[in-house]
Amino acid sequence: MAEMTKDARYLISSDDVYLMGKGEWYRSYDKLGAHPATQDGEDGYCFAVWAPGVTSVRLVGEFNGWDENADYLFETETGGIWCGFVPGVHADECYKYAIEPTPGAELIYKADPYAFHAQCPPDTASVTTDIRHYEWGDNAWMLERNKRKMLKSPLNIFEVHLGSWKRHDDGLNGNGTEPPAGERAGGSYLTYDELSVELVDYVKKMGYTHIELLPIMEHPFDGSWGYQITGYYAPTSRYGSPKEFMHFVDACHEAGIGVILDWVPGGFCKDAQGLGNFVGHKLYEEKEHPNWGTYKFNLGKGEVRTFLISNALYWLDQYHADGLRMDGVSSMLYMNFGIDDPAQKRFNSKGTEEDLDASEFIRRTNSTVERYHPDVMMIAEESTAWPLVTYPPEVGGLGFNFKWDMGWMNDTLHYCQTDFPWRPGNHKLLTFSIMYAFNENFILPLSHDEVVHGKCSLIGRMPGDYWRQFAGMRALAFYQMTHPGGKLNFMGNEIAQWIEWREYEGIQYFMAEEYEAHHDQQVFIAALNKLYTQEPALWQCGYDAAGFEWIDADNAKQSLISFVRKGDDPKDDLAIVINFDVAAHENYRVGIPAPGIWKEIFTSDEKEFGGTGIANVGDIKSEDVPWNGRENSVVLRIPALGGIVLKRVGDLPKPKPAAKPRTRKATSKTSAKAAPAKAAEAAAEKPAPKKAPARKAPAKKAAPAKDAAASAPAAVAKAAPAKKTSAKKEAPKKAPAKAAPAEKAAEPQTPATPKKRTTRSSKR
After folding, report:
1. E strand or H helix at 476
2. 8 Å CB contact between 124 and 220
3. From CA 587, how far away is CA 598, in angstroms rounded?
4. Which of these is catalytic: 327, 405, 520, 535?
5. How many CB atoms lie within 10 A of CB 107?
6. Are 709 and 746 in contact (CB under 8 A)?
7. Which of 21, 623, 696, 706 has an alpha carbon 20 to 30 Å from 230's alpha carbon atom?
8. Does residue 381 have an active-site annotation?
């Protein structure tokens, strides 16, 4: 038996052991795990692992022929940490710990909990690596991030699963192997280096501010999407090495894109090489999760808290992540999450269902991140009404910066999949979110969870024919982008992919190349993203009630809502109208926040977006007509299943003062013939008689706007199918509206089958 020597730089001190036991050794990854080192002139690696109460821990790997008797680790006097230096070990060598639980017991082979690199699944060994000395090129980004006001900045997130955003068209499995006979392959994975070009370019072109990655920590099963982890400190080897992942983050930052990582402290998988039964019995885990078949961390144990909080800081320190989205927060906070049987329910010392250890761990994690990285976002996936999620721990909050608004997501999707005749009865689903929108700092998620497991794709939920489904997708995206809060969309939503997301193949981006409707949807989303970042009113006060004001929340009959979004400067204020019905409207009156000249700066009904082209062209002058409880209003054209954005661009012209009448007396030299002409001139210069001012209708008694389109037969039969007698769209006749443009708005009549793209216009 050979005993390993010790390297002073990586010796575990009594202070380290003490802090680890308290759960406060926040940079434990500096010593635990495998680190390149030199001792007595020999290069090698130092290894350290927490395995209390066992008889021995041996190191086995490629460097010693996997000989379980070759290299034994030393145990610290207290704390149960085993460590030592092995000369001759190089980078990229596989290794595991062979743990002897009791004298003579069968050895347990475990991957290193702190390994910075791991074999690509299905292989399970840890891999030595040196993550030092990567030359980061994102100094400007990091300096700017440090100055950025988090709640005063745009936040528009593109959620991505790296293994299925795109794949190579090579007929192989993701890991490059041949599929079994009769099975279809989705293509081999793109590498981190390829993604640093292709994905980064795409996200930049589409105008998102951040990428959020489903967990990239090493995990054995593709179908878990990364949420069942074995290597918390190792970026998955499916797409390349740790330094190649650093390069990917660096490339994002160079392009002005932030990187958010999904992080999973709620539980871990049961695979033999992982954390479960690490020393022959429970060490990291408390119990099994009742729903997910995973182990829940024992968050009351200091060493486990050290492991997890260090892990959060590791991704921020070593990989420059800009945020962590904590997965499954509700499953951690409630002791009885997923338990329906009353006999199995547990309660804490206060008699409530709050998991006191878990809530304290969450507060400690967020406080620690705030202390070391105050410019990093901590985001909660919390699906209940737990109070004060985004409030500081010192006032009883959990300390997150943002929380996913699952209520908005559920209500809005339920409304949007409701067929048109029944939408008036569900109108409150559309508006209720504003009742609580500013209780927390919310992000509005249309995430991967909404397009899997039989829920259908988003467009698959939209009612109506082909055109109405795409128009419904535009209306949904438009509402999300103009509603207060941050935004998140899963890949594929931006092209309205028909099929559910499948992790074993790429998103069907060929649809946007071959079919006009999908291409137009992609163009629309890019334009909408651009609008969002360019208009401060959509994000400057996105988490403050002062930034939102209803114009009309109660027009259930016509399925219309209108509101004002405000920025810090009143000149940035926007008026927004969204129609969730199939009837377009002419001559529709809307109250506005201020008199003046307004301009339509965006409409979701542009023809290049797949719309009908209904627009409000030119200056829109306010009228001194009270409406929607406001003193001034405008008359608009409103597209079917669409929204418009208005911005004030100037003041109304002041009326010119009337010219004073001339009183020159005719001289004796003035000819008699000239007198009538002078008299006529003087008469022309007299001011015109003033008209009596128009009577203002009292606001309380203001009747709904007379809407030519609403009174037309097409508007009465809202959901009637499009006529098929002619291929040409034919607008129903409408009563002329005084303030309406010549073009009449009508319910779109469109084909129910996809139109294949043949050529691109010169504009694209």
Report:
1. helix 466-482
2. yes
3. 16
4. 327
5. 15
6. yes
7. 21
8. yes
DSSP structure class, residue 108: E
Look up residue 623 and give its two tokens.
């009228």
Question: The pTM is what?
Answer: 0.86
Residue 628: CB atoms within 10 A of its CB come to 19
User: Residue 31 carries which side chain, given as an amino acid letter?
Assistant: K
Tokens of residue 121, six digits: 């699944």
Question: Which H helix or E strand runs over 285?
Answer: strand 285-288
Three-state SS for 410? helix
- Rounded Cα distance, 44 and 11, in Å: 15
Q: How many residues does the chain have?
A: 764
Sign of CA dihedral 365, 370, 373, 376: positive
Residue with tokens 């024992």: 298
Helix, strand, coil share of the chain (percent; to 5): 30, 20, 50
User: 44 has which bridge partners?
Assistant: 37, 87
Max Cα-Cα span within the chain: 138
Helix orientation angle between 192-206 and 242-254, rounded to the nearest 10 degrees: 20
- CA–CA separation, 195 vs 158, rounded Å? 14
Q: Which string of DSSP letters, residue by residue, matches 230-272? A: SEEEEE-TTS--HHHHHHHHHHHHHTT-EEEEEE--S-B---T
Amino acid of residue 473: M
Q: Are 482 and 538 in contact, with CB atoms under 8 Å apart? A: yes
The question of whether 30 is a catalytic residue gets the answer no
Residue with tokens 């206060």: 350
Give me the amino acid identity at 629.
Answer: G
* Average pLDDT per block of 10 residues along the chain, 764 residues long: 53 94 97 94 96 97 97 95 96 98 96 98 97 95 97 98 96 88 88 98 98 98 95 98 98 98 96 97 92 92 98 98 97 89 87 93 98 98 95 97 97 97 97 97 97 94 97 98 98 97 96 97 98 98 97 98 97 98 97 97 98 96 96 98 97 78 50 42 40 39 38 35 37 39 44 50 36
Q: Count of CB atoms within 10 A of residue 370's CB?
A: 16
Number of H helices and number of E strands within the chain?
Answer: 14, 29
Token output for 148:
């950025």
